[in-house]
Amino acid sequence: MVVHVGVVGSAVAAPELEAIAERVGRELALAGAVVVSGGLGGVMAAASRGAVRAGGMTIGILPGSARDQANEWVRVAVPTGFGELRNGLVVRASHVVIAIGGEYGTLSEVALALKTGVPVVGVGTWSLIRPDGGTDRGIIPVEVDDAVPTALALVASA
Predict the structure, then answer these.
(1) In 10 A of CB 143, how many CB atoms?
(2) HSE (side-chain half, CA atoms, 13 Å) at 64
(3) Distance CA 96, CA 7 (A)
(4) pLDDT at 158 over 90
(5) Global pTM?
(6) What are the backbone angles phi and psi of residue 109, rounded to the nearest 5°?
(7) Cα–Cα distance measured from residue 75 to residue 77, given in angstroms and rounded to the nearest whole number
(8) Across the strands, what pairs with 6?
(9) What confidence score (pLDDT) does residue 135 get?
(10) What is the three-state SS of the chain?
């Protein structure tokens, strides 16, 4: 089975988050995984760039209706015309999600993944507080060195 890993994060990201995403993309490609993203800039472009430079495959599930909206590192562009609703498609196309940093769009992808049983690994991303005040443990926080091995182990154990 080819593992599809959603890499989610801000479309405009700080250089340090882009470096993390590029490394994650590269490591995923070297492990034989496909990188799935929203296909735009920031974390999405950096993860795709890392994967392509390592000889990997990338899929961009785009918010708009035109394939040319994808960043240059997307090899399979899927235009949806769904806007932010395409976040659900990114999650559903993934066996596991790695969230890197992120804003509300990333939070929506994390929530959709957790709701649908897709594991979430987080590098410098959201933490969630349950209504009773406890910490939700759905997002597995890791350092960048552990992101890909943790994500792939979650898929293997499912």
Answers:
(1) 10
(2) 8
(3) 9
(4) no
(5) 0.97
(6) -65, -40
(7) 6
(8) 36, 97
(9) 92
(10) CCCEEEEEECCCCCHHHHHHHHHHHHHHHHCCCEEEECCCCCHHHHHHHHHHHCCCCEEEEECCCCHHHCCCCCCEEEECCCHHHHHHHHHHCCCEEEEECCCHHHHHHHHHHHHHCCCEEEECCCCEECCCCCEECCEEECCHHHHHHHHHHHHHCC
* Alpha-carbon span 138 to 113, nearest angstrom: 10
140 phi/psi in degrees, rounded to 5? -95, 105
Q: Any idea what the CATH number is for the domain that residue 19 is in? A: 3.40.50.450
**Residue 112's pLDDT band (cuts 50, 70, 90):** very high
**What does the angle CA 15 – CA 60 – CA 154 come to, to the nearest 5 degrees?**
80
Structure tokens at 112: 């959709």
CB 39 within 8 A of CB 66: no
Domain that residue 97 falls in: 4-156
Indicate the number of domains in the chain: 1
CB atoms within 10 A of CB 56: 23
Tell me the mean pLDDT in the region 69-90.
98
